[in-house]
Amino acid sequence: MSQTTLFLLLNASLATIYMVFISSILATIVGLPLGILLYITRKGNILEQKSIYQILAAIVNVGRSIPFIILMIAVIPFTRLIVGTSIGMNAAIVPLSLAAMPFIARVVENALLEVNRGLIEAATAMGATSWQIIIKVLIPESLPGIINGLTLTVISLIGFSAMAGAVGGGGLGDLAIRYGYHRFDVSMMLMTIIIMVVFVQLIQWIGDRMVHKFSHHKR
Amino acid sequence: MIILNEIYKKYSTPSGEITALNNINLRVSPGEIFGIIGKSGAGKSTLIRCVNLLEKPTSGQVIVAGEELTSLSPSELRNARRKIGMIFQHFNLLTSRTVYDNIALPLELCGYSRQQIKENIMPLLDLTGLMDKINHFPAQLSGGQKQRVAIARALASQPKVLLSDEATSALDPETTHKILDLLKNIRDTLKLTILLITHEMSVIKACCDRVAILQHGELIEENEVGEFFAHPKTPIAKKFIASSLTHTLPDAIRSKVLAFEQPDTHPVWRLRFIEKTATQPIVSQLINQFNLRINILQANVDYIKNHPLGIMIIAVAGDTSKIQAGMLYLQNLGVQLEVIGYVPNNIISFA
Ligand SMILES: Nc1ncnc2c1ncn2[C@@H]1O[C@H](COP(=O)(O)OP(=O)(O)OP(=O)(O)O)[C@@H](O)[C@H]1O
Ligand SMILES: [Mg+2]
User: Fold this and answer.
1) ipTM for the complex?
2) pLDDT tens, A111-139?
3) From the CB of residue A209, how many other CB atoms can be counted at a distance below 10 Å?
4) Which residue has a Cα nearest atom 25 of ligand 1?
5) For strand B84-88 and strand B67-68, is the pairing parallel, antiparallel, or unpaired?
6) Domain boundary residue among B233, B262, B283?
7) Which of A3, A180, B194, B222 could be B33's S-S partner, Cβ–Cβ 3.0 to 4.6 Å?
8) Do B82 and A126 touch (CB under 8 A)?
9) Whether the CB of B42 sits within 6 Å of ligand 1
10) Ligand 1: does its nearest atom lie under 6 Å from the Cβ of B11?
11) A120 with A47: CB under 8 angstroms?
12) Do B23 and B119 share a structural domain?
């Protein structure tokens, strides 16, 4: 393997890590509270608010039903507004985060729905405020489920980032297209695939470890 | 300590309105263990959940420790709830917290410091016998241990009242007994008032001072426990009591009992003694005074709050007139006597 190939692969890997990392964080910052909001405003829950739930659910559903490739193009004006350009890694982060937000919101909502309602009842009977119920009961009890969902999201983002890369975002996807596809560089193509597989395995492993750490259901 | 005034709870469902609680009036005195018994669907859970307003009554007043909960603001209600402990059938412990941290939760909610929490919790761990389990997670505990944790948690904020929603229904009889003993012990040491609901007469028998029967959302009978067992008023009370006492015949004999008198048979009586009659030497009286021969097929004397309550099934042999006289004698004593059948004399010996 030549020095340049190595340099290209390293650079592309770092770009992918950067895009996935930043967009995962941004998506979690919005998606986590959104998921909690969905859960608590849902029918029969601690802050039941039918209209708010329906509006949020509609937004999330719309967000999730747009294919990523379309979303990427559709948000270009918005990306330009925020980042100043529509190409490059930073520009790719905008559609990546937007795509992951509704996904995380649903994943979090589902994890919360798994929490035994008796626990919320017990906390209410102790005089807990809604905020205390969220912080002390809902989040800790659903943490394994939330981490599982976040792991899933990050792994999806690796795939999406490759797509974003293909249209000028940089990263491993970009490398695979430019060298592997356009120049028929099979070894480069293989190399990018191997690196992506390693990334996915690594993230899944970390996720599983964390789920194990926070899960005390059955040992 | 707990006063419920004209509580109604109605649910509107697609198939019409359900009246889960129909004009409930209840008074639980300080230091008392009050049991409410009822069949499934009677409204027990709804009733106990109304006491701390987990369920908001459609109308009526809930007064706990002198405070009318039904008129409080949300934040006042939260404060009032801290003085009402509650335990549940399925324990409802946080799986993500250790035993210690579960018990600490109510105090964390009140903003206690770590040190204050520790000072409050240690005596409770001792009381509930959980000292060696403090770092265990609920998944590592047995049902009885989980309920102990739940009890300690309910007591952490030093409540005046403890509500128990079928707390022993998920436990085996032996563990049930231990938990009920613990509740009695807590009542005595902490001067707590306990309201519990159950569908098992044995729970009432084991630990309650007063009992009320809930049927179709109405309290239909209320009494001191000894009185309740001695003089049940409603048919459902009698049924509950009957179900809690063993007074069936051994299979071998039961299959031979005839419904009508025939030659060479002996009558079988079921005697129910209450209060004084339970302590009198009735059998020897029958033998000596009426010259009857008695074969005891089944006997059981229970003591409920020091009131003896006995059931005996006997086969009687002797002159027909003497048997009649003996029957009259028992009835005059206040023994409830019922002829449940006749056994052929080759089955039972009176030797
Ligand atoms: N949220 C609800 N909506 C509609 N009906 C309800 C609701 N909760 C309870 N009910 C009805 O109220 C009645 C009493 O229910 P409740 O749960 O209090 O009974 P229970 O005595 O505790 O029974 P169990 O021993 O089975 O727990 C039942 O007929 C039930 O169907
Ligand atoms: Mg119930």
Assistant:
1) 0.86
2) 999 999 999 999 999 999 999 999 999 99
3) 11
4) B40
5) unpaired
6) B233
7) B194
8) yes
9) yes
10) yes
11) no
12) yes
pTM value is: 0.82
Bridge-based pairing of strands B307-317 and B265-274 is antiparallel
**Do strands B33-38 and B193-198 pair parallel, antiparallel, or not at all (unpaired)?**
parallel
**Would the pLDDT of A219 be above 60?**
no
A33: CATH: 1.10.3720.10
| B81–A125 CB contact, under 8 Å | yes
Q: What is the pLDDT of residues A135-146, one digit of tens each?
A: 999 999 999 999
| Element containing residue B81 per DSSP (H, E) | helix B74-81
pLDDT per position as a tens digit, B177-204 = 999 999 999 999 999 999 999 999 889 9
Domain match, B92 and B149 both: yes
CB B91 within 8 A of CB B30: no
Residue B240 lies in a domain: no
Pair B195, B268 in one domain: no
CATH number of the domain residue B98 falls in: 3.40.50.300
Ligand nearest to the CA of B24: 1
Does B351 fall in a domain? no
Residue B95 has its nearest CB partner, among A121, A125, A217, at: A217
- For range A177-190, the mean pLDDT: 84
In this predicted structure, the answer to whether residue B351 has a pLDDT above a threshold of 70 is no
Rg (CA), chain B: 25
- Determine if ligand 1 sits within 6 Å of the CB of residue B41: yes
How far is it, in rounded angstroms, from Cα A56 to Cα B214? 43
Task: Please check the confidence at residue B276 and state whether its pLDDT lies above 70.
Answer: no
Q: Any chain A CB within 8 A of the CB of B11?
A: no
* Domain with B128 in it: 2-233
- Name the average pLDDT for chain B: 89
Q: What is the pLDDT of residue B59?
A: 94
Give the domain-ending residue among B233, B256, B277.
Answer: B233
Question: Residues B216, B263: one domain?
Answer: no
3-class secondary structure per residue, B133-177: HCCCCHHHCCHHHHHHHHHHHHHCCCCCEEEEECCCCCCCHHHHH
Are residues B314 and B225 part of one domain? no
Query: Which pLDDT score is estimated for B240?
Result: 82
Question: Does B183 lie in the same domain as B98?
Answer: yes
Q: Which domain holds residue A91?
A: 3-218
**For position B278, what pLDDT does the model report?**
61
**Total structural domains within chain B:** 2
Kindly report the backbone phi and psi dihedral angles of residue B258, in degrees, each rounded to the nearest multiple of 5, phi listed first: -95, 150
Instruction: Look at residue B211 and tell me if it is in a domain.
Output: yes
- B106 inside 8 A of chain A by CB: yes
Q: Give the model confidence (pLDDT) of A196-206 as tens digits.
A: 999 999 999 99
